[in-house]
Amino acid sequence: MKKKLISILMCAMIGIMTIGCGSSDKDDAKGSDSKTEGKADAQDGKQAVDKNFSLQMSDSYTFTDPQDIEFDQRYVLEGDENSKLISNMANMGYTASKMYDIIYLNDGSPAAEYQYFVTADEASATALAQFYTSQGQKITQEGNVLYAFVDGDTLEGSIISLAGTGAISDETVEAYVEMMKSFNGLVDYK
Q1: Model confidence, pTM
Q2: Tens digits of residue pLDDT in 57-71
Q3: Are residues 24 and 37 in the same domain?
């Protein structure tokens, strides 16, 4: 029994070391993953993410990374009319053509989340904003684009709650991102 336990522990240690040591070159070569990190900082070995990311959401609105949030990692997800989230909204009478979910982390912890909805026109955006406001959410409207901001503490609380109910596998941002993909039909932004 003792030899069997030692063998299992040795296999686990070797597996962990292999996973931990074999990811840097592969991650840099992917390019299409929604998780964006920068090249290693030569001074302290930490990952430095490009903080000049921008995403044109409509003819009149372009998202750029916030300057007031400390982050070292970013996930960018998107959904269109074919995603479950937007098609469910359409079934309720609210139209949007695109949805973007931008999630920031700092030292592995949630730092912020922005959820954007792009509609065909300002009237559709106003109707959708009224719906979300009636549900207790704070929404900002910029023409035909709506967004909701969630601070890091609130996002972390949501993640803990989702994990506690079994909606996500654990209390990590990665599990939350996977839920956004599987439940809402979002995909990695390319």
Answers
A1: 0.74
A2: 998 999 999 999 999
A3: no
